[in-house]
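Notes from the 1:1 (GR / supervisor)

We went over the backlog. Supervisor wanted to see one worked example end to end before approving the batch request, so GR pasted a single chain during the call. The sequence is below; no edits were made to it. Supervisor asked that the structure be written out right there so they could see what the output format looks like.
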Amino acid sequence: MIKVSIIIPVYNRERLIVETLESVSAQTWQNWECVVVDDGSGDGSVEAAQEFAMRDNRFKIFVRPENRKGGGNAARNFGFEQSTGDLVNWFDSDDLMTPDFIAQKVACFFSHPQADAVISKRMVFSGSPSNIVFRENRTKLTDTILEDFLLINTTWFLPDVMWRKSYLTGKLLFNEALFSGQDRDF
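Structure output shown during the call:
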């Protein structure tokens, strides 16, 4: 059965990380691991994540090694190195998944076995998931999708894409020298 790795860098997000991890825990697709990489938090982010790991061994908690430059990109790359899944989806510590988030993407890989990535849309809500304030509509499949992406005619965000790990292995992932625009650069 296909295993999915959700990789989440975290830095001082104690009040947000719990809700993010709860959304991972609620997935209908059961064969996943959640790799949380702390980037030097000074709050209770690590302890909050460790509580999930104590209840469910699919949560793996790491601290970015001291010999790696600080920042989300180093944490993302380190998380990728620790991941064991066949498919990888990066997430941020304030993102939420619908319960079928993983299952729907895995279904796309089953129906398109030649695909290296699956892109989904996102929604922004306020207060509760039923209070949608923005439904992303910029992700469009076109005949010139790469050109459209480079010209910002279409876009996707880091959590939107699930990747086949074998496609990414051996490639330069996140430029650890960048502090903004990391996902676009990737």
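Supervisor's comment: The two ends are 28 Å apart (CA to CA).
Batch request approved.
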